[in-house]
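Weekly sync notes, structure subgroup
Attendees: PM, AL, DS (notes)

Item 1: joint prediction request from the bench team. They want all two components modeled as one assembly rather than separately. Inputs as received:
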Amino acid sequence: MLKVQRLTKTYRTAGGPLTVLKEVSFELGAGASLAIVGPSGSGKTTLLGLCAGLDQPSGGEVWLAGQAIGALDEDARALARNAHVGFVFQNFQLVPTLTALENVLVPLELRGDGGADVEAEGRRLLERVGLAPRADHYPVQLSGGEQQRVALARAFVNRPKILFCDEPTGNLDGDTAHAMVELIFGLNQEKGATLVLVTHDLDLARRCQRILRLKGGAVVSDEPGTPTEHAGCTEGEKT
Amino acid sequence: MNFILKMAWRDSRASRRRLVLFSLSVVLGIAALVAIGSFSANLERAIEQQAKGLLGADLIVTGRAALGEDATAYLTGMGAVVAREVSFSSMMVFPTAKDLTRLVNIRATEGEFPFYGDLVADPVDAVARFRRGGAVTLLEETLMRQFEVKPGDVVKLGQTTFTVVGALQKLPGEASAISATFAPRALISMDALEGTGLTAKTVLVRHRTQLKLPETVAPETVEREMRRRFRGERLSFDTVAERKRNLSRALENIEGFLSLVGFVALFLGAIGIASAIHVYVRQKITTVAVLRCLGASARQSFAVYLVQGLALGVFGAVVGAALGLLIQIALPHLLRGVLPFEVDFFVAWTAVGRGGLAGLVICVLFTVLPLLAVRKVSPLVALRSAIAETTGTAPDPWRIAIGVFIGVAVAAFAIWQTQSLKNGLGFAGMLAVGFATLGGLAQFIAWAARKWFPRRLPYVARQGVANLYRPQNRTVLLILSLGLGTFLMLTLFLARSTLLNEIQTSGGGARPNLLFFDIQDDQIEPLAKIAAEQGAPVLVRAPIVTMRIAAVKGRKVEQLLGPGGRGETPGGRRKEVRAENDDGEPRGRRGNDGRIAGWTLRREYRSTFRGRLESTEKLVKGDFIGRAPAGAAVIPISMEQGLVEEMSLQLGDEIEWDVQGVPMRTRLASIRAVEWRRLEPNFFVVFPEGVLEGAPKFYVAAVRAATPEHSARVQRAVVSALPSVTAIDLALVMQTVDAIFSKVAFVIQFMALFTVLTGVIVLVGAVMTGRFQRIRETVLLRTLGATRRQLTQIMLVEYTVLGVLAAMAGGLLAIVANGLLAKFIFHLRPATPPLELILAVVAVVAVTLTTGLVANRGITSHPPLEVLRQET
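Output from the run, pasted for the record:
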């Protein structure tokens, strides 16, 4: 589902070129889960952005759902994202001027889908994340945990083949984060999507099938996690 | 498309009020364009519909003498209905107002003029009473108000006492406000003229023959034929077609000028929009990035905001057009008295469309410019906000292309409005200079505030100064909008001051301020005596001999003019030069040789003779010869340099004059520069002494009166003893210039007001935009304990600095513009009244501060959390 080969990213800075990612390679099958961990500045978010086609690599290639995205222009990559990818961000990134339901529907409306069926799908997903009564609320009227649940519903509305999560619990308190994690893994299992998540939380990372550890832009270890049999994740013990 | 429209609508939810405010910036500019365009269309239709009423006749023939027998026979022979008018200026005495006197324009009429349109007077039966003849008069309405004359009162003209039957309100083809200002009109009947005894002694009499032609006869044919057959009578002709052409041309000029003033408002508003959208887009970057993450293409994201920009432009255009139509209803009232005809209101949809479209195009162009940044937003911003700071820094060819397009559009619009490549480019250039100067000043302020930061000042002052240069500051926008508004308003004000100031100073000191004309040879000594008795001795006296040019450099005037030469244009002598030049007459009109202006050959010259130069003159070239050599066959004369240029003369060129039937050969011996604006007798041609003393002549004399009352006393004494003598008081000239300028300036200032109001709206927009930009900071300061008072003080410091500097910059630009106008247009010394300038600066600062305080009110008076929830 996701193949990354010798992926490199270099930025031009005033002090000369700065390589933040060095020849990273890995492969992930359909339904698999991968956690990317490492200290701040190790290149985790850059790797996630490149895998999701949000940026172009300086070297190497990414195959997303069988499609090499490095050669695509920005608009073609946007189409690929819309077709195959779901996102959950650390700071939720809901559009502040849209209601919860409208936020959820954006990916489908971008495709040109509309009508009662689409709205029903959005409402079903909001119900699944426990926010059906808040469908017409704006982001400022929702708590952080609720906003992240709306973001999760939005991430799954286009039935993505792969879900990218960037520190999905980073802005949430312990209990809310726990509930969120359950939702991510639960929905991921239901929808059969591949999961790539960036986190500092090692407990969360261990619930994935694989843990890719980065340091200074390079992979320092690629080890298995301890997922449960069905969900691809463990029950979430905390360290 | 569906997504784009839906998203554009939803995304605008929290910002609609703000977007409406942005669009208001262009509303007034569009309103001005629509109002002027549609009103012009009304005027054009009025001219078309009332064409014949514009002249009151099919053809009017004007000459210095009554129409000759042959010419009259020619006209009556073709079946023309003839009416006559003799007009001249004279002093009128008002017995009901303590015998005060006033220069009036006497119109002695005979016949049924006007043939088209109506002679309107108040009360309604006044016209009928006037037509019955006798010693009755219709007086200009303003004159009646000035001297509190009522119908039934009497006035004196020469030796006759006339009963006033009513107030003259409208005479076809004439604008009352213009004619009323200098010499208000007094209509009398021809049979009463002789009794006044004025015509015998009055020199400058104009005879007009008004004609109603048979329908089969074209006025232009009659004009051509008369020019050919009666060239010797030096007649001038006025037809409906020509009047229409002249009016249309004048109105086009006014329309062009006013449109440009409106356009400045639009342009300023567009700058405000561009600036506001720039901030708006910055706030939307994260939303755009999220949309990009979710699969929106760059084009789709851009389109979402372009739709908002278009909606904003359409809203501005529609509201602007509606407002423009409302203003259009008001314009005829503002211009009442200036226009020589009635204007009916109708909506000129083409003009509305044109104004709205121009506004929409400019608005959209200025909106697109900052919106282009949306295309460059990386989806990575959703992951890392720091990336937003680096987006859109590379040169964007689209941005450059639109920038160039805006420049071209502005220049093209200016050229279109002024109908002149040079003037249009000049206007666009001036606009660019104004913007560049103000923009440069703004950059300097930001730089200087950082460089010389006042570290020792209290916290609120430091914070206020820091706001001038910190990221997302409003320095450029505010300096531009406030500075430009101040610049335009003050330029108009200073131009008016310059004109009035010059007249005031020209009458200052010991200079003459009361001028007597039409003094016959035998009246000059009695006049000098009366004036001296009244305590105002004659300071300047000049003999005047009327003459015409017979030949130039050996070629007869008839030869030089050729067939079809046009008659003299009425008006003052400087105006004559300008009127004919501004008419855009082709060079060929300057005589057959293409070098001598026709008017210089056709006019009647009122020349003087004396032995020295006056204080209003300066020798430019040659030798001024004060006394003609005894027995000289060719007399050395001195001519004014403007006339010399118009006639393409060189020193030594020979001119032959027809001095009331006597030929006289002269040569150009010297060229003088003359200060025409001084209220003293000035002349195109000065002869040496010892030549013209024996010729029939009359005099002008100038005296100085100490006070207006003194002036009235002197005038009364002179006029009662010598009724045919006319007087011009400096106060009257000032009143005239002020009245004319006020009328015109009011219209211009009315339009300039649009720019100022736009400036205020842009200012409110800028403050609001800043409010969104600084909301977090302000809330943070409040959270940390800043009081409302402190926040207000910070804002006051910032706006005071901006207001003062913008007003000063605008003031300086206005001083420069006024200096240029004074030097190149008015040829005067510019006036810069310091007190008024300081007051203007204070007013601009006050407006800025008030606007700032009102717009910022909510932010400082509500709890921080509430503000954050509402505004984000």
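Discussion: Confidence is low (pLDDT under 50) at residues 229-239 of chain A.
Action: AL to compare against the crosslinking data before next sync.
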